[in-house]
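Late entry, written up from scratch paper. The run itself happened at the end of the previous shift, but nothing got recorded in the book at the time, so transcribing now.
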Amino acid sequence: MRPEEVLDFPTLYKQNCAACHGDNGRNGATIALSNPAFIAVAGEAQIRDVISKGVPNHLMPAFEKSSGGMLTTQQVTTLAHGIVQEWGNADLFAGQTLPPYLTTLPASVDNGQQAFGTFCAKCHRPNGEGHPPIGKIGKLGSIVDPSYLALVSDQYLRSTIIAGKPDEHMPDWRSYSTQPMTDQQITDVVAWLASKRVVNPGQPYPTHP
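Output as recorded:
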């Protein structure tokens, strides 16, 4: 069988996605795809678009041939549909208002800092600098570290705030406080985190006399 003829979801996922997103869609280096909250918010069409085109200037490559990748249109469609069918569960969110995957709202960095204090500081500390081990959660690293922020997109930050990280005991947008986070609050927190990016992240090259 030629590579472009493979249309089996488990095979396509293992060959193209598991290295970053983990076996069975979890415990990988980046966002878990086996998270029903992420799937419900993103939706199959958006997941397909990201697989096809990737995320420019970040670590998610384009996979569809029309965008410079190696997969056919049908294979990309198989991956997106398989992720939704394998790991989605829309019934978990029946009757609830989901925040949009993409936002159209203007953002406020100042309001984002306030919202971060309300919803996120309990675990990540007031300035996002991380926390010593907390029970089952373990140690939390800095989420304002410039090297970390250089690797992730604003959309990744938004998706993580919305969907949480079940494998790491991070709740989704409904469970940070007594009230779910609104689209505006999520948007503002992302803006505040993004404001911590620097032009040249990481350690400077050593200088020699």
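The CA atoms of residues 21 and 30 lie 6 Å apart.
(Scratch paper discarded after transcription.)
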